[in-house]
Design a protein that fits this description.
Layout (H helix, E strand, L loop, with lengths): L4 H33 L6 H17 L5 H18 L1
Helix pairs in contact: 1-2, 2-3
């Protein structure tokens, strides 16, 4: 365990950020999965819009790298275009 006061605070702050980031990444996976499951149905457009929005928000908050968000959006679009 750290002895320095500022390091003790950083440990707590990092733990909170880790939990928050974990929740965001989990939601990203859920949103992308929902898009692939609803391919070819009317609610697919809404699911895609929400997935892209969440990817952009995660990139803006630097939870994921902006290039990763762009790559994942691109792959999602290519998968949907190939399916339908």
């Amino acid at each position: 365990m750290a002895n320095i006061k500022s390091q003790k605070k950083r440990i707590l702050t990092n733990a909170k950020a880790t939990e928050r980031n974990k929740a965001v990444r989990s939601e990203l996976r859920s949103r992308v999965k929902r898009v692939t499951q609803t391919a070819g149905t009317p609610e697919n457009a809404e699911a895609l819009r929400l997935a892209v929005k969440r990817l952009d928000m995660a990139a803006a908050k630097r939870t994921i790298h902006p290039n990763q968000a762009a790559r994942r959006k691109s792959r999602l679009m290519r998968k949907l275009n190939a399916a339908g």
